[in-house]
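A reminder from the course coordinator: this example appears on the midterm review sheet, so study it carefully.

Given structure:
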């Protein structure tokens, strides 16, 4: 009898340890991440991972730039983005320098505003939803 009881408890503990939570909409973030155009609004999503300097302001600027680039592409604005990365190793210390330049060529003006911001705490990514005015 004890062997059967022990076997049942062993099976329950193995099955219980193997289960994984099913993803829900709250795990995936706000709905606008997957659907940028909602309620008749034309929008774009800018995503930025943690930046080299670990500053939230740098991450925010990068996400805003990416959202504006996406809006510009949707409207037919020509965008030229140049990024260069240079790593310097001196006396055993490593430093990274990133230069980013964007050139826009357009005859029309795009105006937009930040509708919402979401930070994924598990990945550290920052999502910015920009909507055309």
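Designed residues:
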């Amino acid at each position: 009898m004890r062997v059967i009881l022990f076997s049942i408890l062993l099976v329950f503990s193995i099955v219980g340890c193997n289960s994984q939570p099913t993803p829900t909409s709250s795990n995936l973030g706000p709905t606008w991440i997957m659907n940028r155009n909602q309620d008749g609004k034309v929008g774009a999503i800018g995503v930025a991972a943690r930046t080299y300097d670990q500053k939230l302001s740098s991450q925010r600027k990068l996400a805003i730039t990416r959202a504006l680039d996406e809006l510009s592409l949707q409207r037919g604005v020509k965008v030229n983005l140049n990024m260069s990365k240079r790593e310097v190793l001196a006396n055993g210390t490593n430093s990274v320098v990133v230069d980013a330049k964007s050139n826009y060529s357009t005859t029309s003006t795009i105006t937009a505003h930040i509708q919402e911001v979401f930070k994924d705490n598990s990945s550290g990514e920052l999502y910015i939803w920009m909507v055309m005015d």
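The chain is about 30% helix and 35% strand. The beta strands are 43-48, 78-90, 93-105, 112-119, 126-132.
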